[in-house]
């Protein structure tokens, strides 16, 4: 970080060295290695190519000379050391390919999120705002790759876009966290904060004072009088940006700024304005604030008097949806995420399926070309469906006298395998769908005066599909492999809940790694046409009472009628808990299972963790139900591999509520 002094007016503060220094007016940040962990990824990408050709890994003695120099890995210093048996152009191409694979996994470094949030609201001791800016040598394409991870983009977005200078930007740029960056800042007459990588610290051990003075002379540029003096107090070294010493730089962070935590996640509270739907000016207020980049809008759950709904307008809110909301209470934790509201987003967590993430998944997962359908037949419920949904019917039309046939299909979009869309299930108490959409918004006449509106329609997902890396949690197989005394009951036609800890144990037993942005599939059971004896009870338990799609066809019409007569219907599924929600939020782009409701059902009306509410209307996360996972499970077991490539193309129905997934798993 390079700090710019405010050289006019009263209010100097004491410096570390011999000078009395004025308060800070602006902070210029480097990106790689200072705000995000790209220096480690640069090294990883270089090492992959080096070891491929039998060369040693990149040592810090060489890396220290490359940091802060654009294109340095293509220059003489690197290639004179590397002695690769390939051309520089080929190395450049292979390294760029590794960048495309690994840069999307960039993460913010410790303390960065809090520091940038603090500085956005801070003033110096003279009462002037502290400006923040970014200067990086990364070109736009690499910047987009490095910030494609949602949490990383959220942190970088805290710096106003007009204050971000990239490597292909015509404006001036500054480099930091490298030794060269400190020298550049010192030559420009600025104060500097050096936050080096531990490897760089070891390389410059004993030379720290020369680095801070900008006197390393890595490159013979400028004049000596531009260099700093040893121990002049205008630069210092920090191990990280955590617990930043604001007072040392004359920066005052407002006391009313509150960073509250919910588990491992952070949400940001600032001044808020509460408005309620009964106010006549609600829509105009929303429109006004949604156009201002300083604000974002959240559904606000007011827990007083059993909870009433409104909208909360928050100043300087983090612009990526975190698992956040008003402070949770036992009454009604507000696990909301309205971070895309200003953009009228209709993709929700599918925004995580970036081009680079999909390309990496295809490269890593498609090995044999084997394709497996996960679609249950559309007519799988032939007589009467659960939830009173219109069953599938087909009218076959003979086009005489030609030898030609047509057919007409009629069915409810959720009568078989389906993706629940963002129009399906609202926050029931607040009557709000994703991004605050109401029933009136959905059922109003369209802007052109004809038909209905299409807001939050399934067509938005059809544009690019639901495509990426899938992981199967074969809970059924894992459960049956447990000791008889530990075997937990599970009935698909009862409200049995699958605990998160069991899903995680299953993944561990499979040896399946979960990656950010994955598409989750949970197999709850399969058909067994015979009973198994349990030594723990010495009584038979028919295992055909396991798994909905796998056992539905084994039920008689009378048995199904008994189940359907129970209203609300009862189905097994994953547990409802904050831990389950956090796990889904922190890993997945979409979730699916072989049950009619994904979560155990029915959900108590006063439950604070109804997955349909939070996933669909809070985060815009697709919920898949009635998926046929039996062939998939058998193939995964045979291959000892439970990850694969997923291609799903929802039907392109403008304003659609749900859709058959038209889905394949590809190995």
What descriptors fit this protein?
667 residues; alpha/beta; DNA polymerase, domain 1; 4 domains; 9-stranded mixed sheet; 6-stranded mixed sheet; 30 strands
Notes on the structure:
The chain has 667 residues and is an alpha/beta fold. The chain has 4 domains: 181 residues, Rossmann fold (3-Layer(aba) Sandwich), CATH 3.40.50.1000; 68 residues, Putative phosphatase, domain 2 (DNA polymerase, domain 1, Orthogonal Bundle), CATH 1.10.150.240; 86 residues, no CATH class; 215 residues, Glucose Oxidase, domain 1 (3-Layer(bba) Sandwich), CATH 3.50.30.50. It is elongated, with a radius of gyration of 29 Å. 41% of the residues are buried. About 19% of the residues have low confidence. Helices cover 27% and strands 19% of the residues. A 9-stranded mixed sheet has the order 16-30-28-20-22-26-27-19-29, sandwiched between helices. The protein has a 6-stranded mixed sheet with strand order 7-6-4-1-8-9, with helices on both faces. A 3-stranded antiparallel sheet has the order 13-15-14. The protein is built from 21 helices and 30 strands. Helix 1 packs across helix 4.
């Amino acid at each position: 970080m390079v700090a710019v002094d405010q050289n006019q007016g009263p209010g100097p503060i004491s410096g570390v060295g011999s000078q009395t220094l004025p308060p800070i007016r602006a902070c210029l940040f480097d990106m790689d290695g200072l705000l995000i962990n790209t220096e480690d990824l640069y090294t990883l990408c270089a090492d992959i190519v080096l070891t491929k050709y039998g060369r040693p890994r990149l040592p810090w003695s060489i890396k220290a000379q490359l940091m802060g120099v654009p294109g340095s890995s293509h220059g003489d210093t690197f290639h004179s050391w590397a002695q690769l048996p390939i051309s520089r152009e080929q190395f450049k191409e292979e390294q760029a390919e590794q960048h495309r694979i690994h840069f999307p996994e960039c993460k913010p470094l410790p303390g960065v999120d809090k520091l940038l949030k603090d500085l956005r609201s801070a003033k110096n001791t003279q009462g002037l705002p502290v400006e923040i800016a970014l200067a990086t040598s990364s070109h736009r394409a690499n910047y987009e790759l490095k910030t494609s991870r949602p949490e990383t983009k959220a942190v970088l977005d805290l710096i106003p876009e007009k204050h971000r200078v990239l490597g292909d930007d015509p404006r001036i740029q500054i480099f930091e966290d490298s030794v060269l960056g400190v020298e550049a800042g010192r030559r420009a007459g600025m104060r500097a904060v050096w936050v080096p990588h531990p490897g760089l610290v070891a390389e410059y051990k004993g030379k720290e004072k020369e680095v801070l003075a900008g006197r390393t002379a890595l490159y013979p540029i400028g004049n000596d009088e531009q260099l700093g003096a040893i121990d002049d107090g205008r630069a210092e070294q920090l191990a990280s940006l955590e617990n930043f010493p604001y007072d040392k730089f004359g920066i005052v962070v407002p006391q009313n700024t509150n960073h509250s935590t919910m588990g491992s996640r952070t949400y940001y509270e600032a001044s808020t304005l509460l408005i309620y739907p009964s106010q006549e000016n609600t829509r105009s207020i929303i429109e006004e604030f949604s156009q201002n980049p300083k604000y974002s809008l959240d559904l606000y759950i007011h827990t007083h008097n059993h909870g009433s709904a409104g909208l909360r307008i928050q100043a300087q809110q983090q612009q990526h949806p975190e698992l956040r909301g008003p402070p949770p209470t036992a009454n009604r934790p507000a696990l909301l995420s309205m971070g895309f509201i200003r953009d009228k987003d209709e993709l929700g967590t599918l925004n995580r399926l970036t081009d680079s993430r999909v390309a990496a998944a295809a490269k890593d997962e498609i090995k044999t070309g084997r394709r497996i359908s996960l679609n249950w037949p559309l007519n799988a419920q032939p007589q009467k469906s659960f939830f009173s949904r219109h069953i599938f019917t087909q009218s076959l039309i003979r086009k005489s006298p030609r030898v030609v046939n047509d057919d007409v299909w009629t069915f409810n979009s959720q009568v078989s395998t389906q993706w629940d869309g963002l129009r399906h299930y609202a926050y029931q108490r607040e009557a709000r769908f994703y991004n605050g959409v109401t029933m009136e918004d959905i059922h109003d006449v369209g802007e052109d005066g004809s038909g209905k509106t299409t807001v939050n329609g399934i067509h938005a997902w059809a544009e690019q599909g639901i495509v990426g890396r899938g992981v199967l949690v074969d809970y059924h197989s894992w459960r049956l492999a447990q000791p008889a005394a530990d075997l937990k009951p599970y009935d698909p036609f009862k409200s049995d809940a699958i605990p998160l800890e069991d899903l995680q144990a299953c993944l561990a037993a499979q040896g399946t790694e979960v990656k950010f942005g994955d598409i989750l599939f949970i197999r709850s059971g399969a058909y067994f046409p015979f009973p198994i004896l349990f030594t723990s009870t010495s009584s038979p338990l028919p295992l055909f009472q396991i798994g909905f799609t796998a056992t539905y066809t084994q039920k008689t019409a009378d048995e199904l009628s008994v189940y359907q007569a129970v209203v609300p219907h009862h189905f097994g599924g994953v547990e409802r808990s904050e831990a389950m929600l956090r796990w889904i939020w922190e890993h997945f782009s979409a979730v699916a299972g072989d049950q009619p409701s994904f979560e155990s059902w029915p959900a108590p009306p006063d439950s604070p963790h109804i997955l349909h509410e939070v996933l669909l209307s809070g985060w815009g996360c697709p919920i898949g139900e009635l998926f046929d996972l039996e062939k998939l499970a058998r193939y995964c077991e045979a291959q000892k591999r439970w990850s694969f490539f997923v291609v799903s193309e929802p039907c392109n129905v403008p304003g659609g509520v749900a859709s058959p997934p038209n889905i394949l798993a590809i190995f």
